[in-house]
Amino acid sequence: MASIDISGVKKVYGGAVTAIHSLDLAIPDGELVVLVGPSGCGKSTLLRMIAGLEAITEGTISIDGTVVNTKEPAERDIAMVFQNYALYPHMTVRGNLEYGLKNRGTPRDEIDRRVTEAARILEIEPFLDRRPRQLSGGQRQRVAMGRAIVRQPKAFLFDEPLSNLDAKLRGQMRIEIKRLQRNLATTSVYVTHDQLEAMTLADRLVVMNGGRIEQVGAPLALYERPETLFVAGFIGSPPMNLIDIDDLRDKGALALPDGSDLVGIRPDTIQLSPPEGQHLVLEATVELYEPIGGESHLHMRLDGSGQLIVAAVPARTAVTEGSRATLYVSMTDLHPFNKETGQRTD
Amino acid sequence: MASIDISGVKKVYGGAVTAIHSLDLAIPDGELVVLVGPSGCGKSTLLRMIAGLEAITEGTISIDGTVVNTKEPAERDIAMVFQNYALYPHMTVRGNLEYGLKNRGTPRDEIDRRVTEAARILEIEPFLDRRPRQLSGGQRQRVAMGRAIVRQPKAFLFDEPLSNLDAKLRGQMRIEIKRLQRNLATTSVYVTHDQLEAMTLADRLVVMNGGRIEQVGAPLALYERPETLFVAGFIGSPPMNLIDIDDLRDKGALALPDGSDLVGIRPDTIQLSPPEGQHLVLEATVELYEPIGGESHLHMRLDGSGQLIVAAVPARTAVTEGSRATLYVSMTDLHPFNKETGQRTD
Amino acid sequence: PNVAAQTEIAWWHAMDAELGKKLEEIANGFNESQSEFKIVPSYKGTYPETLTAAIAAFRANEQPAIVQVFEVGTGTMMAAKGAVYPVYQLMEDNGEPWDPSGFLAPVVGYYSDTDGNILSMPFNSSTPIMYYNKDVFEKAGLDRETPPKTWAELEAMSRQIMESGAAPCGFTSGWITWVQTENLSAIHDQPYGTLENGFGGLGTEFTFNGPVQVKHWDNLKKWADEGLFEYGGPVGGGDAPPKFYAQECAIYMNSSASRAGVINNSKEFEVGFAPLPYYDDVTTDPKNSIIGGATLWALNGKDPEVYKGVAQFFTYLSQPEVQASWHQFTGYLPITNAAYELGQEQNYYADNPGSDIAIKQITRGTPTANSKGVRFGNLTQARTVVDEEFEAMLAGTKTAQEALDAAVERGNQILRDFEAANQ
Amino acid sequence: MQAKRTIFPNKILPYMLLVPQLAVTLIFFIWPALQALKSSFEREDPFGFRTTFVWFENYRRLFIDPNYVGSLSKTAVFAFSVTVLSMSLALILAVAVNRVLRTNRLYTTLLVWPYAVAPVVVGILWWFMFNPTIGIAPYLLRAAGIDWNHRIDGTDAMILVIIAASWKQISYNFLFFVAGLQSVPQSLIEAAAIDGAGPFKRFWTIVFPLLSPTTFFLLIVNMNYAMFDTFGLIDATTQGGPAQATNILVYKVYTDGFIGLNIGSSSAQSVVLMIIVIALTAIQFRYVERRVQY
Amino acid sequence: MIENRPFLAFLTHLVLIIGVVIVVFPVYLAFVASTHGSGDFMRGLVPLLPGPHLVENYSFMLNEGISTAGAPPLSIMLLNSLVMAISIAVGKIAISILSAYAIVFFKFPFRLLAFWIIFITLMLPVEVRIIPTFKVVADLGMLNSYPGLIIPLIASATATFLFRQFFLTVPDELMEAARVDGAGPMKFFRDILLPLSRTNIAALFVILFIYGWVQYLWPLLVTTDSRYYTVVMGIKRLAATADSEPQWNFVMAAVILAMLPPVLVVILMQRLFVKGLVETEK
Ligand SMILES: Nc1ncnc2c1ncn2[C@@H]1O[C@H](COP(=O)(O)OP(=O)(O)OP(=O)(O)O)[C@@H](O)[C@H]1O
Ligand SMILES: Nc1ncnc2c1ncn2[C@@H]1O[C@H](COP(=O)(O)OP(=O)(O)OP(=O)(O)O)[C@@H](O)[C@H]1O
Ligand SMILES: O=P(O)(O)OC[C@H](O)CO
Ligand SMILES: [Mg+2]
Ligand SMILES: [Mg+2]
Prior knowledge:
The complex is a heteropentamer, with two copies of chain A (346 residues), one copy of chain C (423 residues), one copy of chain D (294 residues) and one copy of chain E (282 residues).
Chain C: E1 7-13, H1 17-33, E2 37-43, H2 47-59, E3 66-70, H3 74-79, E4 84-85, H4 87-93, H5 105-111, E5 121-126, E6 128-133, H6 134-139, H7 151-164, E7 169-173, H8 178-187, H9 194-197, H10 211-226, E8 229-230, H11 240-245, E9 249-255, H12 259-265, E10 271-274, E11 292-299, H13 304-318, H14 320-330, H15 337-345, H16 348-351, H17 357-363, H18 379-394, H19 400-421
Chain D: H1 13-39, E1 42-44, E2 51-53, H2 57-64, H3 66-99, H4 104-112, H5 119-129, H6 136-143, H7 154-183, H8 186-194, H9 199-210, H10 212-229, H11 231-236, H12 249-259, H13 263-289
Antiparallel strand pairs in D: 1-2
Helix pairs in contact in D: 1-13, 2-13, 3-7, 3-10, 5-7, 7-10, 8-9, 12-13
Chain E: H1 6-33, H2 54-63, H3 74-105, H4 111-123, H5 130-139, H6 146-150, H7 157-169, H8 172-180, H9 185-196, H10 198-213, H11 217-222, H12 231-242, H13 248-268, H14 270-280
Helix pairs in contact in E: 1-13, 2-13, 3-7, 3-10, 10-14, 12-13, 13-14
InterPro entries (chain E): MetI-like, MetI-like_sf
Keywords (chain E): Cell inner membrane, Cell membrane, Membrane, Transmembrane, Transmembrane helix, Transport
Protein name (chain E): sn-glycerol-3-phosphate transport system permease protein UgpE
């Protein structure tokens, strides 16, 4: 168990593509940090630099206080779970679990003890003598986890470990990983581009974009107070509606901070009847009514600008497509931004 | 444009696997019917029989009043959109759109007119001279749609047309398809196993299971009043909690219809404070608190049976993991079922 | 003349390099002498390759009208009654002159069948002789004009050549079968097989594992180990001539027809010619060496028109001028007495010392049953066996006696097969 | 056997499509194979005038002929050595090429072209190098004090043809090993590195076992190559000699049939060879069917 | 991956360079030999540096050849090889693609039998059944003709398998889409399948061209007329006579000329070549 310190780290591929621009991140011992961001934003690159699979162009990475920049992966004492699991197909499950320990010369009885323990925790005892191809996707995922935990490494690195599973299984495994990490209290870095996974797993969430960190914080904090336009748009589903202030009728009355020129409105904060306290009023035409069970989505076109916005309303809300609607949003639910800087303004 | 009548249709593969058991379904002109159901339940088989790609073992299918059982696909005048799009990779987008028309000997200027029109509607004019591999997933999907609409067929058949797209794009395309179908008013059969798609697109939803129809109806009707256990469990996310009546403390007071032995409770109808009117009370321990933005999921273990149940509660609900919770459900939100028959009992 | 009406006559042969060029010249000579026929020579590889190619072609009905078959194939060809058009009959049918008595005696003796008829057209007959490098002899301190007469002398001289550093090797040889086994037997009057070395019929058996042959092979093995003798490879011994040309080996035994190549490739040293050596402890009266080279066979299955051309061509070939020029250029024997006489008239032998060694050697003494030649069916295959056994001996896996015994045994099996297939 | 989910309903068309290939196959493959079988029971004179039915005589003679039995074992030695030599060299080269990223293409180009050289030409190249009078190899060997004489020494000759045959086959094996190496998922190697394995350990414990499908495939293909495709090579070098030391089965079929004109024996040998090929192919086929790698 | 092992990098290049030398040296020697005069081979060791007779030797071989070594002018033999290699490649591709199409896209009685008959050709290399095959060709009067050189070699299980394998990877939906779009079997074959197979066809062509070019035994058997000799077989006879008559310069010029076309094809079309090779053998 160890802390991970990333300071001023930069990665340039082949002298041309800058995948990571001077990035700083400190991960305290025992924390589970989730990296999210759109495809190509550098999540895997960062993770692989921590693992030693990718050379670091600039800056330093330390594990447990020691700079590891030039150490081979084997010397870093970390474990990694890959998206495709990377199980050794020619070894049994047991062989897979033992491999890392054997390479490090762990005594035989210690190996057995640890493998048995890991197999018990992950409930894979019945498959210990099978080959990976004889396992289902979920079982393979467990073995991959097992291979990481038997090693009792300083840190776990996960690169989208669940993305090959179907939605149902993904939900289950997510919960298991969360429990396991809580129990083992091993420092972990978890890469995903699934929002739900990110929100539910993270102690701290790191939103990345274009090789830079956009915002770091507790998941709900990010949801409730995105600091940048990017984070605002990236987190939340359906995504936050972003409306130009100039398109608002009563913008004068809004009293938004200086420099604000966009307001963000989460679909579920749009109401169809006026709330108490100060609020914004919008007029729109309903284009599409989407019932999705517990709630419904209203796709509407704003008067004036004609912009499309989405509201999440209770299931049986009585609206018909083509009808006109008046929408209300509490002033406290508005997220003001500056377009130019992309930063929050309040 | 045409109605489609399926009556007594059965499909047996290779004399052994019965994929469809004597199925009846009438689709009126202009309607969009969505077929949902778990993998292997026969959705594609049914669609392909309508298309003429699969022989019909028993029963008849009529399009526009004519029995088409022995007609070649080309003679049925239907268009189909495939999951992998099935674009001709060596032809340009234009070539793809024209191919079906050319084969039917449509005059050159008519072809041009229709292709231009379709390209305009789908906003694919800029790509007309590209090859499919030079397009993004969403663009390919549009071309596949375009190939169907230029033909102006009697019906559209869609087999999971969006399942190769990522979540965001899927949302967008879903809305477009819905709009397009409304405008063209072409009879359509749409296969998916994505609930959200099914709920939001369907005029009428057909839930299939094991080669049979479980329930047919408007999407919300199915959500609110599932007629079978299968439908209850299949529609809704997180899925409906199903609790054995014997595990309920005050089951006597419930006054459920005769024959009920299971009640279904949707996660979003579980409340943390007592509602007005008659209601059910449950005691549970919170195992995991998952914030997902606008709402949070509580994973809890029921006292007594130890069954896991999920509740969807507002985002900032103050609960801590490990604490005890008392849950309330209005009597009107209960769905009573009989385990044996799998049927609703009220 | 109307070129389109020319009848083409295919002639498959095994004459490469200088010999091949000369052969093409002869074909051209005939083609220019008349306009009705055109001889088209084509080279088909070694003698065994040419023979087998012709047989395969015959089976496929693609045979040439004329094929050159070496003396070893004679037994096989004579037995193939349906396949060959006997030359005496061919000449008679086409009204061309035919006088067997005009040929040299050894030729007539070898190529006549049991009824005394010559079945194929004699063309290039040879006999093996010895070539030596006069310059190397001198360098080694030997007399450049005195080649070895006996094997003992040859051994001694070779050793002197090697030890003096004049050349790294004493001698090499083409055709181990023909030169070092068949001819050796004849010269020392040893039988090669029963029934007059096979002349007497199909029931013959090999007997070349006698003491003289064993002794000679033993010596070759001993000399090879010592480096005095270098092996030139199986069949014709293709590696042997370069060894002589490159002055690696001072002495070289091969067909008299190697003369053309030797002369052409020995521009940097002077060559001497001599008869083959003999063991003076076996005989003091070495017999004649035996015939080699080839004759031309007409194959069945062509139009009469073609045979007319073949017959005319054979007549052309027998002309003393053609024969003499062929003989003098190549080193083959003058086939007809007329050609030999013509050479004498031209003073050719006097002007070219050594050029009559072959003819003298093949006609010396009175031929015995053992020096008349060897004529067996499937002899090509039997020779392969002899080569293999010789190689086994050189490799040290067998003694000379064992090798020759094995060769005889395997050879007899081949003879039995031939007998079975031709009964 | 696999086919498409939906198929065209035409009845006659598929036969029309198959006719050209089936015709060629039947006329030039099946029929001659049956002919070979027939004449393996016969004795025939060279010119084909007389044929006698001899039952299993040709086979019986074959298997008591020490030369044939010798040829069987020579073939085994030859095929085995060529396979092992060319595969191990190719593997070493492939691993090396796989390690260099930038110069990869250049090395590959320089290594693959011998594939396009005809075996008989390969034979000539090596025969030339080993020419007893002017060849560079005997010269160097002599300088190194090695007594080399492939004209007489069967072992030397065998070594020569093995080297020549392996030389040609390296490029082929190399390409397949490179392809095999590239199909070993990079993530497995990375996982092993994280699991504490150094480069050599990674190779022996992860990469090599995962190459086993390629290795097995190449084993079969190389055996096939050594047994049949080297005909031209043998013909251009030793022609089976000295004393049949390099007379592999396929060459013997040819020499006994076309040179020795012993059609019956040659046909019997053909039949034996066909049985061997069929066995090899069957092994290969079973393996192709189960190719699901782990 | 971070790796601190400079020695390993050095070793890697060393191994590769040695490998390249082993592969190139015999051909270098051949090239050198082809640039000398005949006399240069009579003095012991083969020369190791190129000589001045390159143009002379090559033009002699190309234009005149050595008829008394069974080698007509090489230009004729090269042309024959070209005809043979191209025709074999085209023929094999044509008949295999049709039969693969039948086997994959149709169901009909005896489909399995047809498949096996084709499969058998894999098992019967021409070398093991030369005599009867030769006889069939002879009986059909095809000796000494291009058809005789070509047709018996164009049945190919490998190419059929490759196409079958490829066709199986063509998504079912493509054919279904075409059927819905009104295309029949031949139209589908022409409009969709053939264009899709383009790179496979090209890759296969490269491999089969080489296959045709390097044929030795077959041309050796079926041609007795020098007008139909191919360069690879012609060369062998040349080499055989070079044993007794040292004209290695001419032999090696011929060797280089016989190697050049297929080697160039491999080098220039490396991508297609590798694809063709790796895929046909699967
Ligand atoms: N080996 C490489 N060479 C050059 N560029 C690379 C390499 N690997 C990654 N990149 C580039 O670096 C950037 C970051 O890639 P990275 O794989 O870290 O993204 P990611 O956030 O993991 O994306 P995803 O969610 O798709 O996995 C991308 O622009 C990518 O194209
Ligand atoms: N060609 C076939 N031969 C035999 N059985 C088949 C064939 N095609 C489908 N089946 C079987 O028929 C049943 C229905 O298959 P179908 O493809 O219609 O399912 P589906 O509902 O479309 O499933 P999915 O959601 O996975 O696409 C399955 O049990 C399947 O295994
Ligand atoms: O070289 P040649 O033509 O004299 O013939 C040699 C003998 O005939 C070999 O049997
Ligand atoms: Mg990634
Ligand atoms: Mg389906």
